[in-house]
Amino acid sequence: MALRHIALFRWTDGVTPDQVEAVVDGLSRLPSRIPELRDYTFGSDLGVSEGTYDFAVVADLADEKALDVYRDHPDHQEVLALIRPLLADRASAQIRITDPG
Amino acid sequence: MALRHIALFRWTDGVTPDQVEAVVDGLSRLPSRIPELRDYTFGSDLGVSEGTYDFAVVADLADEKALDVYRDHPDHQEVLALIRPLLADRASAQIRITDPG
């Protein structure tokens, strides 16, 4: 049984498309640098529902140990340093998922 | 490009394991009843991080039209009727994901 880490971000007022693009660029580099990431999806909210958060990240990992590696990885920390100043709110959870096929 | 719908729930004080189990049972029935659900994962937070929400649902769907079908489906509405009275907070987002290979 693998683990799915989910994080939703709400940006502060005044966050620019360029700042979000820098976050996207930073996150895009992580799968090639953190082999523990089995699946990694992220992006801006599509704006199809009311009251949604602005951005989501979903990381599938083998187990809690792999989650720790992802969390503490310097390349991840570098992107978090970009994200933190933009955050008005953050919501997260980790759930168990079935291993793929 | 498909769509990933993410919802995080925080339960009110006093929600019992039996109530959560009823939610899990209800959600478990949805994939066989709503063919629009390409992938459907959900469950209680594992308790491995601070400040997390209590429960997460991730639904992968073909597009916005499929999301509407899922949302409005009577079997889904039936589970939502179980969930709503238990909710202290809810966080959600929809992001674009790549279609599976």
Describe the structure.
Chains A, B: Pfam families: Dabb. Chains A, B: This is Stress-response A/B barrel domain-containing protein. Chains A, B: Residues 3-95 form the Stress-response A/B barrel domain. Chains A, B: InterPro entries: Dabb, Dimeric_a/b-barrel. 2 copies of one chain form a homodimer. Chain A has 4 helices and 4 strands. Helices cover 35% and strands 34% of the residues of chain A. With 101 residues, chain A is of the alpha+beta class. In chain A, helix 1 runs antiparallel to helix 4 (74-83). A 4-stranded antiparallel sheet of chain A has the order 2-3-1-4. Chain A has one domain: Alpha-Beta Plaits (2-Layer Sandwich), CATH 3.30.70.100. The N and C termini of chain A lie close together (11 Å). The longest helix of chain A is centred in the N-terminal third of the chain and has 12 residues, at 17-28.
Which keywords apply here?
homodimer; alpha+beta; about 100 residues; Stress-response A/B barrel domain-containing protein (chains A, B); Dimeric_a/b-barrel (chains A, B); Dabb (chains A, B); 4 strands; Alpha-Beta Plaits
